[in-house]
Design a protein that fits this description.
Layout lengths: L9 H21 L2 H21 L8 H19 L18 H9 L5 H20 L2 H12 L4 H8 L3 H26 L1
């Protein structure tokens, strides 16, 4: 589906087709369930306004354009945040994910509870490691390794050369390996 495909039900089409993908990208960027919801919602609003006003990049597919919007919104949010993060003593250190996701985990749990716990720990470690690498490497790694985009598609989304994408992914993966090996070394 290309951006030129206008419809009266554009909000519903975007929501049905892209909401999960957009939320996943937002979650991997923010590492926070509620921030990811806000970022995804803001991206959809911007996308709908861009389509309705005709101010969108028609050379990109809708999902590529949405990811570009998410990236820019996330960078803007980082600029607005204070440099020092203030933690509330009333909230738990490990943020609890949404209720629906918990129910989904219960319904689709594996027969072996240990493997479910191990998988959750690995996912948490990867999310933590992704948050630690610089944004210029994080976004290409997420788009390539998690969302499955090609180098060419990522270069369009990030508006940079394909060679730059390849080097950022390589460096991002090196960061991830280093951080994840440090995490596994601490647990032993």
């Amino acid at each position: 589906m290309k951006i030129n495909d206008k419809s009266d039900k554009i909000e519903q089409i975007l929501s049905d087709k892209y909401s999960k993908k957009v939320f996943n990208i937002a979650y991997y960027l923010t590492g926070n369930y509620h921030d990811a919801q806000d970022l995804a919602q803001e991206a959809f609003i911007k996308m709908i306004l861009a389509i309705k006003t005709g101010l969108c990049d028609t050379n990109l597919s809708i999902d590529s354009y949405l990811y570009k919007i998410i990236r820019n919104l996330y960078i803007d949010s980082l600029r607005k945040k204070p440099k020092v993060e203030i933690l509330s003593l009333d909230e738990p250190l490990n943020e609890i994910e949404g209720e629906g996701e918990k129910m989904e985990l219960i319904k689709s749990s594996l027969p072996d509870p240990e493997s479910v716990v191990e998988k959750k720990i690995q996912e948490d470690n990867v999310r933590y490691a992704l948050k630690q690498i610089p944004l210029e490497y994080r976004m290409p790694v997420i788009l390539c390794d998690i969302e499955g985009y090609s180098y060419k598609e990522i270069s369009k989304i990030l508006n940079c050369l394909e060679g730059t994408v390849r080097s950022r992914i390589h460096r991002g993966r090196k960061y991830l390996i280093k951080i994840l090996s440090n995490i596994s070394g601490e647990k032993k």
